[in-house]
What does this fold into?
Amino acid sequence: MTGGGSHDVRIDRERGLVVKRFRSAGRGEPAREWGALSLLDRFAPGLAPVPVRADLHGDVPMVVMSLLPGTELGAARVLPVQAAALTEALERLWRAVPAAEMRFPTVTPNPVAFTDQVAGMLGAVGPALGDVPAAALALAQARAWFDGAAADRLRCPGERVVLGHGDPCLANYLWDGALVRLIDFEDSGPSDRAFELAILTEHLSAWFDSGLDAGGFLARFDLTRAEQARVLGFRRLAALFWLLMLRPGSRSSARNPPGTLERQAERLLGLLG
It folds into this structure.
């Protein structure tokens, strides 16, 4: 059995099934998982697990899905062939589902929800961030950027609504030697390409653990100028999110090696320019 903060996962290899039980459903996680899997089974079969059955309203909500082949990305450096396959998988995800079919009536679009989340974190952390000078400087500059017009710009809709994965930890992308497939859709919802690319390239599992080159990876996508500007804004926001997550005494700080906060601060300062 494996588990995250909001769910437990049991794998039945004999029957080729995965049973995901949710300990948290306050953001509609079970319905979002089931809804995304159902849409992808219809519009992009083979890209994600096949939904088998669900109990979305029980005391412990549950989704049962097929077991996919492959190993998690992120355990080692991402190879060029894997980056190419990841690009193809993401492009297929974003092309597959028509916006009119994305019926997530109670779900705030992912970019808006994330912007609001970071705003709340900024309000809670206070004016300082421990006694790490680089982190304090990065926080001050990021706060000034965010409190300007940035927050309002980031809440504006993107050019095209796509089905967003919402959880870009590289462990949620399975590589079978030829293709990349996606798992873990409890944070899925309406989104846009720029936001989804930004939170992936700035995820700790991507740049810190696996050495994914953000510039090279983003160059694989045919982004408009407006999308490129939006990617930069959300990369800054995602880097700020991780700076706040890594504050001294936090769970993320305890799980990562010494010096992670300093490296995160340097990355954020570089993005702020």
Remarks:
- The CA atoms of residues 199 and 273 lie 18 Å apart.
